[in-house]
Design goal:
Oligomer: heterodimer
Shape of chain A: globular
Order of helices and strands of chain A: EEEEEEEEEEE
Shape of chain B: globular
Largest sheet of chain B: 7 strands, mixed
Number of helices of chain B: 0
Helix content of chain B: under 10%
Number of strands of chain A: 11
Distance between the termini of chain B: 33 Å
Number of strands of chain B: 11
Radius of gyration of chain B: 13 Å
Number of helices of chain A: 0
Largest interface: A-B, 20 and 27 residues
């Protein structure tokens, strides 16, 4: 069974701080995706990483895929209150997505 | 709008009642997925359609759960004899294709929050 473990589960920080969220698995995934989900809404895709060692940047967000394609990280620089939400990583498995439990981020002004 | 829509947004059911949840995917999207998201958890796969064919229902938790997509567009997830453990958010997602590069990107609806009392 393929599982994705995310850490930390909860994160509460002040505006302006940096943070990193981790997504780890014992299985190799062909791709990993990061989503952000706000209360009462469905997950919204932020990025897809496909190649081992790949780094993608989306404004203040930096995503990295591990060399072995088993883990990924999301780094946010100078967090803002608008970054508050549930961050989910998901791995592709035969077309379906396997999600981690998510990291609930709260950024206080 | 042009996104995935779901109805109802909220549903309260008494234990033992049947419920039907509707999903309108993005027009032209071939693939449709249902996920269940329990409180504090990530979404878990329930079932997958390619057009009207249900190709994977391995995630359905019991035979009380049934999904259909008779004309290859709108889909309905039905739960019979609801139990308290069925309380969750039910998410629908659609994609242009299932396995072809960027076309497999899944777009999620807002979900239906089901509470079984």
């Amino acid at each position: 069974t393929q599982l994705l473990e995310q850490s930390p589960q909860f994160l509460s920080i002040q505006e302006g701080e940096n943070l990193t969220v981790y997504c780890n698995s014992s299985s190799v995934f062909s791709s990993l995706q990061w989503y952000r989900q706000e209360p009462g809404e469905g997950p919204v895709l932020l990025v897809t990483v496909v190649t081992g060692g790949e780094v993608k940047k989306l404004k203040r967000l930096t995503f990295q895929f591990g060399d072995a394609r088993k883990d990924s990280s999301l780094h946010i620089t100078a967090a803002q209150p608008g970054d508050t939400g549930l961050y989910l990583c998901a791995g592709g498995s035969q077309g379906n997505l396997i999600f981690g439990k998510g990291t609930k981020l709260s950024v206080k002004p | 709008g042009a996104g995935v829509s779901q109805s109802p947004r909220y549903k309260v059911a008494k234990r033992g009642q049947d419920v039907a949840l509707r999903c309108d995917p993005i027009s032209g999207h071939v693939s449709l997925f249902w996920y269940q998201q329990a409180l504090g958890q990530g979404p878990e796969f329930l079932t997958y359609f390619q057009n009207e064919a249900q190709l994977d229902k391995s995630g359905l938790p019991s035979d009380r759960f049934f999904a259909e997509r008779p004309e290859g567009s709108v889909s309905t997830l039905k739960i019979q004899r609801t139990q308290q453990e069925d309380s969750a958010v039910y998410l629908c997602a659609s994609s242009l294709a299932r396995t072809s590069g960027s076309q497999k990107t899944q777009y999620f609806g807002p979900g239906t929050r089901l509470l079984v009392l």
